[in-house]
Write the structure tokens for this entry.
Amino acid sequence: MRAVNTTKNKNGDDDYYNRLLSYFRSQFTEKIIQMVPIRKSVLFLKTEKNTYIMKGYQTNSRLRLQEAFTTTLNKEGFRKTYKFLNPNVKDQLFFEGTYFGCIEYVAPSKTTFSFHSHKNRQEGIELLEQFHQTTASFEARYRTLLPKADLIGKWTERYHIFSNNLPFVKYFFNDPFISEMVSWAEWSLKGMEKEYLFFRKEPYVILHGDVAHHNFLRDKSGTLLLIDFDLISIGPASFDYLQYANRILPYLDWSFDKLLQYEPIKKYIPQKPFLYALVYPADIFREWNRIIREKSYSDQVKFKQVMDLTINQFYARKKFIDRIKTMADE
């Protein structure tokens, strides 16, 4: 939710943003001084009195759900996040098929949060644990509003999409990398399906669903916040911790021993179902599927990142996975 110091439209659609700015000016009673696109449907908006983040949603129900959820979070004691605001506007903000919500602007720290440091990784997982502890107290109220997380189904679909993309992927790398990654996924999914009752028995919480580094924001006072709840769902906390482990392992050089430093993850390690799930190459499949879907393979920055994930980290990851397989077979 950070503003960028540019008025250049990254999507090349200046006409759209000019129309949107005119629309906001017609609706806000406060004089608008500046509007800056951050990413698709997310904008920084500064008025003569306040600063906001404007976020667009495809449906009004999605917007209302986000407003209700963040309000509930705050009421239940989790205040390390943002709030939706009710600015003085003439009507509900709806422009060219998009409903816009108004979020308080959180001034960020000069130091951007990342998973490079142990301190940040530890603070991030502790904040995620606090989030789960809070949502456990009210998840029952949201069961009819949120989808139930289906990690096996989600990962099975991702595996099939990657398999269908293999003819294209093979232009960039080949065996032994591809056959190994496919075997990791198949071994993981088979084990998870065999042990699926483990995930059903675990108490449910509301999952964040996207624990990437950019969804942790350190404000100017140094407090770490959790943001962006677009992918929330109902399910066991282990699903978020699996994703968090997958996100931080590249920064741990795929060290199993270093992963044990993070207590919320460590408590799951003796459990076979969790070990099976740790093996699944969720990041590799996600990034290759995305780069092919968006046809962004000509973007050298994105392509370098996905190749680093796939090739440069391959042998460290393989060593990590071989150790887990040995543990699971004992």
